[in-house]
Structure formats: C-alpha cells, structure tokens
Amino acid sequence: MKFFTKDNRSALEAKHIAQFIAFGPVVFQVAKVMRDKGILKLIEDKTAGGGINLQDIASQTGIQEYGVRVLLESSLGIGLVVVSEDGNYSLTKTGYFILHDPLTIVNMDFIHDVNYKGLFHLDKAIETGKPEGLKELGDWPTVYEGLSKLPPHIQKSWFAFDHFFSDIAFPEVLKNVYKYGVKNMLEIGGNTGKWAVASTSYNPDVHITIMDLPGQASMAEKKVKELGLENRVSFFPNNVLDETKAFPKGFDSVWMSQFLDCFSEAEIVSIMKRCGEAITDDGYIFILEAFWDTQRFETAAFCLQQTSIYFTAVANGNSQMYDSRVFIKSIKEAGFDIVEQVDGIGLSHTLLVCKKVG
C-alpha cells in the first residue's frame, strides 16, 4: 500500500505516462516484434562495438528497411534503444530486460497469447461479471475448463506464467508447511502436479490427493505415472463450484496454491467451508497466494494489479489478485483463524496457515 498513497509525479511526467498509456498497444506490439524478430538481440550483440545502423539491421535480419525504420523509431520513444549521431543503434537497460528478464518474458507471452484479444472485451466483462473475452480462446464457462484444450502455444504461455511464480516459491514454502507434521493432504487445484511431486520428494511420509477438474486431473495423473508416484498421489476429479458434489473427507490438511484467487469472495467462503468439512477438527488449511498490498517492490504490486484484469476479462469474470485484507475477510467469514502468515516467499507470495475457529 505504501506505493499508492501519494501522487509523486510532476505534471510533465504524468502527461508522458498518459501518452504511454494511450499508445499502450503500440508499445507492447513493437517491443514484442523487436524481440521476436531478433532485432533487439542483433543490436545487443553490436552495442559493445559502437552499435549498428539501420541498413545493416535490415540486411542481417532480412526485414525491409521501411519496417526496420518504423520499429527502431518507435523503440527510441519506448526506450528500448538509443541512437548515436552517426546513426548507430545500441541497446538500453529496458531493451535488455525485454530480451533477458524471465519475469518480463513470461508476462509478455502470457499477455500476448492468452489475453490480448480478450482484453478488448473488458468493458463488457465489467458490466456482466462474466469473462466476455474468453470467446477469443474457446467456448467454455471459464478458462479452466478449456486449459487442456487450448492450442499448444497458448497452453504453454499459460502454464509458464502460472508455474513461474510457484516454482520459485515451492522450495521455501515446503518447510513452512511440513513443519506442521501433516501426512494426509488434499490438494485442491493441482494443475500439472508440481506441488504433489515436490511434496513427495520433500516428505517421504506424506500422501497427496489431488482434486481438480477432470481435464487438469488427467494432466497431473499422467505426470505422476511417469514418475512412478501412483502409490503416493491419488486423484479425485471434481468441480469445486458445484456445491452438490462433496469434497472427500478425513484429511489432516488442505493445500491450495494460486487457487482461491480464481474465485469471487462468496465462492472463496463456500470453498473454505467445504475444506473445513474435508479435514479433521485439528487439521490445517494452507493457502499460498500473491497479494498486491504485501509486496516489497512497487513493480511486483503493479504486475499483480494488472493480472487481476485477466481474471475479469478472460478467466472467469469475478475474481482477482486480491488485497490481503479483502481475502482474509472471506477466510474469517468461512470460520477460520489465521494462525500464521508468512510474507515475502519467492517473488511475491504469502503463506496463510488456517485452522477452524473454536
């Protein structure tokens, strides 16, 4: 929150940012083309030697001079490159991050492949509370029903985005979870089974039951079988939004990673109540989420705030990357206390350890 309490920009800076927003789609597409066509990489390779001119870029990339020229001139304003008085282009720090920063690459591919066309329907999604942009990907109520059916390049970008943050957080969070001595865990929203695999490697005594939509459960089951973990990991296909279908019972814990942000506040309350029925009276619910208000850096908060719009326009129409205070209110409304909160896990995550009230 500390980043968003004052307007610290001068009028001139604010107007410049306003123009950046107005031309936002142009900025995005130029940066992606400069990256994907190899122009930024070529300029990077020549930067130490004084840069490279337009004609040589066109010749070495096979792109016509006109195309290279308009891209380069746009890139000057964006801040991807600089140009010397003799016409040689060199890479800037921003250009370097577009090329090499894993976070930037994952975010750019996710926005382009999964979100870009769908975001055009944001105004309608705000009005209806439905993911009006999802029709650009397929005919499903939410994106989750369609994940296993997405074209390979879109599926790749979705999972790369989803796993990038959790993969960094998992090594640290494993010790925070298994210090509670859990042995029989229900994982809700298992995706490709990464948490289950990491858990069985970390804790030789734990058994994981993955509950997820049939399409996702089958993807995870395939991975589990490849690793020979059938005796350690079980599956329970289920749609958590169908309140007529009970959760399996008798677990000492429930694990949900980057899962509850896929639901509205009312749905979070409903899911948490059913989680409470799935665990023993002294059981734990572990929730790993990224909250924009708990971030150490403004850039991290910005990324999470913008990711919320994916949920609105494309994913499901009614969820977001939450302010922790809004999220925790729903947890408490469902009848749970937060017995431990660990912020600063990985790039952006918080672990909430919950127990039933009373």
Automatic annotation (TrEMBL):
Gene3D superfamilies hit by this protein = 1.20.58.1390, Vaccinia Virus protein VP39, Winged helix-like DNA-binding domain superfamily/Winged helix DNA-binding domain
Domain spans labelled O-methyltransferase C-terminal: 167-336
Give the molecular function GO annotations: methyltransferase activity
Residues in BVU-1015-like N-terminal dimerisation-like domain copies: 17-86
Membrane spanning residue stretches: none
Pfam families named in the record = Dimerisation2-like_dom, Methyltransf_2
Q: Does the keyword Ubl conjugation apply?
A: no
Q: What processes does the entry annotate via GO biological process terms?
A: methylation
List, alphabetically, the InterPro entries matched: BVU_1015-like_N (IPR049480), COMT-like (IPR016461), COMT_C (IPR001077), SAM-dependent_MTases_sf (IPR029063), WH-like_DNA-bd_sf (IPR036388), WH_DNA-bd_sf (IPR036390)
Q: Which UniProt keywords apply?
A: Methyltransferase, S-adenosyl-L-methionine, Transferase
> Superkingdom, according to UniProt?
Bacteria
The molecule here is called Methyltransferase
Q: Which organism is it from?
A: Terrimonas rubra
